[in-house]
Write a structure and sequence with these properties.
Condenses 4-methyl-5-(beta-hydroxyethyl)thiazole monophosphate (THZ-P) and 2-methyl-4-amino-5-hydroxymethyl pyrimidine pyrophosphate (HMP-PP) to form thiamine monophosphate (TMP). Pathway: Cofactor biosynthesis; thiamine diphosphate biosynthesis; thiamine phosphate from 4-amino-2-methyl-5-diphosphomethylpyrimidine and 4-methyl-5-(2-phosphoethyl)-thiazole: step 1/1. The chain is α/β, with parallel strands linked by helices. It contains eight helices and eight strands; from the N terminus they run βαβαβαβαβαβαββαα. Bound molecules: the ligand Cc1ncc(COP(=O)(O)OP(=O)(O)O)c(N)n1 and the ligand Cc1nc(C(=O)O)sc1CCOP(=O)(O)O.
Amino acid sequence: MKLNKKDLLLYAVTDRHWVGKQTLFEQVEEAIQNGATLIQLREKHLDEANFLKEAIAMRELCHRYGVPFIVNDNVEVALRSHADGVHVGQDDMAARDVRRLIGDEMILGVSAHNVQEAKAAQDNGADYLGVGAIFTTATKKDATAVSLSALKEIVANVDIPVVAIGGINENNILQLKNTRVAGVSIISAIFGAEDIGSASKNLLKLAKEVVK
Ligand SMILES: Cc1ncc(COP(=O)(O)OP(=O)(O)O)c(N)n1
Ligand SMILES: Cc1nc(C(=O)O)sc1CCOP(=O)(O)O
């Protein structure tokens, strides 16, 4: 499945830190039912076998709703789970190598923090860029701050779609208006919400305001 730019609108990234009264699958299903347009499975501490098992089940869940499914960092798990794509950062496997392994049909997302990284990612086969951290985030301790003007500069210098990530919530999302991003990528404002369904609904509505 190649990337449909519209699928980037409300891009939810999982985090089992927020698993409590619901399982990760129940949380993701609620997010999808209420507006999440793309799911990335991000597992930082799971062993390979359990990561793969979970990725297969998550891919089935996403595809039941026609939502694309992307695996964070682990190309092998993405391939073996028949995910729609993989997202890698600057410290992960090089984008060019990932593209060689996954072929032309799978989606490749790459993190970028400046125009140089963004252009290199595009040249090396990225389908979209994740740019952040735009706002302060407690979720990723080693995030690099990226200003709104740097985000705009990146968007203006590449042809592929860009999603903003990092600390985005219902109170600050509208600051992304006029940045020309294709969507917002969010963890805690969705999965850390008291009511994942209503948070997703509201964020989708606001994301549409940003992207229109
Ligand atoms: C959509 C999106 N954008 C950026 C990231 C961050 O990726 P990375 O830099 O590899 O950091 P980790 O997620 O691995 O901590 C992302 N995951 N998704
Ligand atoms: C996974 C991730 N990547 C970032 C980057 O800057 O590349 S910030 C981030 C965490 C996003 O979580 P939250 O929505 O809870 O802030």
